[in-house]
Design a protein that fits this description.
two-stranded antiparallel sheet, 5-stranded mixed beta sheet, Nucleotidyltransferase, domain 5, alpha/beta
Length: 224
Amino acid sequence: MIFFDLEFYVPPEERNHPNSRGTLVFNPGNSNHIILGGYFISLPISSIKSEDQASFRHDTSFWIWNYSSEETLLGAIKNFFEEEFSFQQGQNTQILEKRVKDVVTCGFAIARIDLPALYIRSQYHHIAPTPNLFEIFLKSKVIDLCNVSAFLFPNETTLYPKTAYEVSKRLFPHTKWKPSGKSVWKYYDEGEYEQIETRCHNEVTDILHIYKKLQSYIGLPRND
């Protein structure tokens, strides 16, 4: 299972584009909108309840400033996903009396942004044939915490995706407000790469903590 978060970059002249729909400015179909990298934690599904970091298979990151180009960065991320698929297919994990052969990915808005972005940017750079890229980036079973966490807001009668901050605040009331991902653009413009890495690392750590907290609700008696 992979817990992850990516960081993106939109150049200044594209940040207020009038044709952008909705709140998402980044568009991986635009040649100059790039993936800066991301942070990844992977571990066997059976060991997720453990708080022991030694149970992690991988605790790693990939950043464009450590590679020669976005193309080579994406090649490294592709190899990571391929290794995770190979590992999972060799396991005998059972859920609901079925063997789990698929990689499971978990994060916030990864079904809407991160996984499609990996697929589209890798396709743009011809990292691998299109069918292969679909197999690698779009065939995982996705736990998107934006949607999974909706039950935490019983007073909100409309189902609507929640942000990482909203969920963190509900589960961990002392959570401090964090700026949006757009702050990364400023960091990148100013060469403050360590700030980006730290921000992303904290995001993925939070994702793992949120997942474990939500997991603790499973099996609790209901009051209805």
